[in-house]
Amino acid sequence: MTNKNLYLDLNVLQTVPSSNLNRDDTGAPKTAMYGGAIRSRVSSQSWKKAMRDFFREESIATGTRTKEIAKFLAQKIMNLDNSLNEKKAMDKSATILKAAGIKANKKDNKTNALLLVSPGQIEKLAQYALAHDTFDDKDDKKEIKTILQEDNSLDLALFGRMVADNPELNVDASAQVAHAISTHEIVPEYDYFTALDDLQPDDNAGAAMLGTIEYNSSTLYRYANVNVKDLAKNLGDNDAVASIADFIKAFVLSMPTGKQNTFANKTLPSYVMLTIRTDTPVNLVSAFEQPVTTKGGYVQKSIENLETEYNEANQMVEQPVLNVVLTNKATELTNQTNNLSDLIEQVTTALTKALQDEDTND
């Protein structure tokens, strides 16, 4: 397998009842036009945020994304040396960030864009700041940039970092997450609501407030892929495989929390298909270019369309190293499991073997 790529495709079908997971600027659920029909849509940014939250809940080290990197670093510097006051720590922080090519507003020390840094990076920056009085020469700048390129946390390695002011600090993402769209056409719906004042007089039957919330219901097709070799270069083979297990669990079980207290719409996927490929990742969304129509629910018909698209795609590309399906619905694919742990075990075992074979051949 030497020199071959190694990609993991994740395909998920998930029904979501009345909900408003991801709002646009008007408060309405996001939509997309695909195949000439309006679809429910959840942006990749929204679902990646949910995954990062899931990592934290699982006590997996994640980075901090903030415009207040100078203040964040200054606090870390003071944590390491409590003899420094806030002004001196902020001066050191601003100076070392400037040396790294990270521009901040002079008034409030905030960056123009959110910057993602890992716990290891912020710790080493603080240590470097305390060990040096100035950061002016080329060696200092090179060392500071190196700190910001190493010790990537899982979310940083997976989702990457873009620094418009200094592209040298960019981190290429090892994972791609598609916008989730419904497999069928949706019709926007509106919930007209009223609320009563508990203390209103008995002779007043009117509502104290009223309004509307837009929502929809859908069966979503969700897709993501991971470039396994890129992740392994970043984290090492063993950590990459363990991280992919965390990624799979987070992708399958997480959900954006938009209006969740209003709709209680947290569901589990009805169908999960994982595929390991050596030539190219394959998004199977074209299975739904013609929107699914049915009078008996969308899930089973969506599974049939997805598996047909998978089989047709395999005629155009190399045969996958592994294909495994997690579902309790009818499926035509042979390698089926009904347990998430077993699904992850099969994938990580195959990835470990593939990476070991490659190391041996090298």
Give a written overview of the molecule.
By secondary structure, the chain is of the alpha+beta class. It has 11 helices and 12 strands. The protein has helices at residues 44-57, 69-80, 86-99, 119-131, 138-147, 154-159, 228-235, 237-253, 260-263, 299-314, 340-361; strands at 7-19, 31-34, 37-42, 64-66, 115-117, 175-177, 180-182, 189-195, 209-227, 271-277, 322-327, 336-337. The strands form 2 sheets. Strands 1, 2, 3, 6, 7, 8, 9, 10, 11 and 12 form a 10-stranded mixed β-sheet that branches. A two-stranded antiparallel ribbon has the order 4-5. The relative contact order is 0.19.
Provide keyphrases for this structure.
single chain; 362 residues; alpha+beta; ten-stranded mixed β-sheet; two-stranded antiparallel sheet
